Amino acid sequence: MTIEDVAAGAARRLLSVLREIADEVGPRAGAVGRVADYIPALSGVDPAAFGFAVAGVDGEVLGVGDWEVPFSIQSVSKVFSLALALAGGDSLWARVGREPSGNPFNSLVQLEHEDGIPRNPFINAGALVVTDRLLTLTGDARGAVLELLRAESGNPAIDFDAGVARSEAARGDRNAALAHFMASYGNLENPVEQVLEHYFWQCSIAMSCRDLAAAGLFLARHGLRGDGSRLLDRSAAKRINSIMLTCGAYDAAGEFAFRVGLPGKSGVGGGILAVVPGRCTLCVWSPALDRHGNSVAGVDALDRFTTLTGLSVF
Ligand SMILES: NC(=O)CC[C@H](N)C(=O)O
User: Fold this and answer.
1) What is the pLDDT of residues 64-95, one digit of tens each?
2) How far is CA 15 from CA 23, 52, 56, 218, 280, in A?
3) Radius of gyration of the chain measured on its C-alpha atoms
4) Distance between CA 102 and CA 235 in Å, rounded?
5) pLDDT of 2 higher than 50
6) Which atom of ligand 1 is nearest to the CA of 127?
7) Is position 185 annotated in a ligand binding site?
């Protein structure tokens, strides 16, 4: 029996739970937290938006609320760039760690004490190293990420949001500082400006909960893509899920693991992608963020999901 057989119909069976959570959490969306405004183009998003999708490993995707409305995926893109970089081999691990940082996602402080090696691939410094590696591997890091997202979601219309990318670049001093600092330690192979540009554009990709849940299914399928081909070996897929669990919610990763008990990756656009290995992926979106940069209603919804269903990795 294959994983597909075991989990066939998972999305359909879970839809009623999503409805229940949307009724409970949805009306509170936007009441607590703030929309990210350090990227000016994100500041106009409706804080009360709420969408929640579930994708079964058989490929069926269902959802509730604003689940088909595109939003800025921001740091959720880091999961996909990491997957592509690791598909190119293990050498990345000499240049980035896999420990939670306990610091904000854009912090500089640890880099100096730790020789320009970022703690993990999901803080900005780590993601810049991953983007650099992908640039070396492919010559077009942002294009590679976009192509993977289009293919795995089955939606060829997914695209960059140039307004968001330019807005972030215009306010990109902190990420530029991180990149230059790592370059001074020899931990970037490509010119800083190029790495930053690919990183900003990759973060600007706009997608819905539907598309992101579908695109992340290779993580629930232990590395297998939608067409049955292998993106990652089982071990690499396990590793990405593990790092999502320990580092996917920045300096609130411990709290996220405590409450949700699933591998997850959040972004300052308000999206969170979570994985129930062997069964399904979940994507929730609500733009009002807590002080760590995680969606308030998003974490609440995932917390309720694992409580109501008992589905977690523990
Ligand atoms: N946490 C995030 O989603 C951060 C991504 C954003 N593009 C940044 O670099 O600041």
Assistant:
1) 999 999 999 999 999 999 999 999 999 999 99
2) 12, 10, 11, 21, 12
3) 18
4) 25
5) no
6) 9
7) no
**199 labelled as ligand-binding?**
yes
Structure token digits, residue 65:
């609320």
CATH 1.20.190.20 is the classification of domain 3-309: no
By most ligand atoms within 8 Å of CB, the mutation choice from 124, 130, 166, 174 for ligand 1 is 124
Lining ligand 1 with CB less than 6 A are: 74-75, 105-106, 124, 168, 175, 203, 267-268, 293
Contact 63, 54 (CB under 8 A): yes
String of DSSP letters for 165-197: HHHHHHTTHHHHHHHHHHHHTT--SS-HHHHHH
- Cα(275)–Cα(171) distance, integer angstroms: 32
The catalytic site residues sit at 75, 78, 199, 250, 268
Distance between Cα 36 and ligand 1 center (Å): 10
Residue 151 CA to residue 3 CA, distance in Å, equals: 21
Ligand 1 centroid distance, CA of 129 (Å): 14
Q: Report DSSP letters for 62-110, one per residue.
A: EEEESTTS-EE-GGGHHHHHHHHHHHT-GGGGGT---S---S-TT--HH
Q: Is 106 annotated as a binding residue?
A: no
Under the banding of pLDDT at 50, 70 and 90, the label for residue 10 is confident
Domain boundaries, the chain: 3-309
Span 159-170, mean pLDDT?
Answer: 97
95-129 pLDDT tens trace: 999 999 999 999 999 999 999 999 999 999 999 99
Global pTM value? 0.96
